[in-house]
């Protein structure tokens, strides 16, 4: 790969299917009812176009100024900062999620100030129970 960076991004966005959960246009309709507005429901094409345009802007900012330019935006919408977790490693070790390390892996700190990076290929994440299990190779 040389000096090139390759990134694969995947996501799903529910624009119009109300079942089994909700969709973007359910929120538009709810907003219109609650605030007596008449926002037009979105089409899949509009959501894709807006998403790709925004992604291009973020990639441009990253290329021009580095990750420090986009990380604040990422963290502003990230749900995990400050979450208390238990790390199962020869007993339970209580820790707090701090963010990401320099390589993009989850960074946690223990109550003793130890900072750990946990990698998805080396750990099991059970975020419903706030449990991270370190895999032994």
Describe the structure.
By secondary structure, the chain is an alpha+beta fold. The protein is 32% helix and 23% strand. It is built from 3 helices and 6 strands, in the order H-H-H-E-E-E-E-E-E. It has a 6-stranded mixed β-sheet, with no helix packed on it. A hairpin with a 3-residue loop joins strand 1 (84-88) and strand 2. Helix 2 (44-65) crosses helix 3. The longest helix has 22 residues, at 44-65. The protein is extended, with a radius of gyration of 20 Å. It starts with 23 loop residues before the first helix and ends with a strand. The model has no long low-confidence stretch (mean pLDDT 84).
Defining key terms:
137 residues; alpha+beta; six-stranded mixed β-sheet; extended
Task: Give the arrangement of secondary structure elements.
Elements lengths: L23 H12 L8 H22 L1 H10 L7 E5 L3 E9 L5 E5 L4 E4 L4 E4 L4 E4 L3
Parallel strand pairs: 1-6
Antiparallel strand pairs: 1-2, 2-3, 3-4, 5-6
Helix pairs in contact: 2-3
């Amino acid at each position: 790969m040389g000096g090139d960076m390759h990134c694969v991004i995947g996501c799903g966005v529910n624009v119009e299917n109300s079942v089994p959960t909700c969709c973007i246009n359910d929120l538009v309709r709810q907003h219109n009812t609650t605030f007596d507005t008449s926002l037009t429901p979105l089409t899949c094409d509009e959501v894709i176009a807006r998403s790709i345009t925004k992604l291009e802007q973020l990639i441009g900012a990253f290329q021009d100024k580095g990750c420090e330019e986009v990380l604040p935006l990422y963290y502003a919408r990230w749900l995990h900062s400050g979450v208390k977790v238990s790390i199962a490693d020869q007993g339970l070790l209580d820790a707090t999620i701090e963010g990401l390390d320099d390589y993009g892996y989850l960074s946690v700190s223990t109550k003793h100030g130890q900072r750990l990076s946990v990698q998805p290929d080396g750990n099991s994440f059970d975020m419903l129970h706030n449990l991270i299990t370190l895999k032994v190779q």
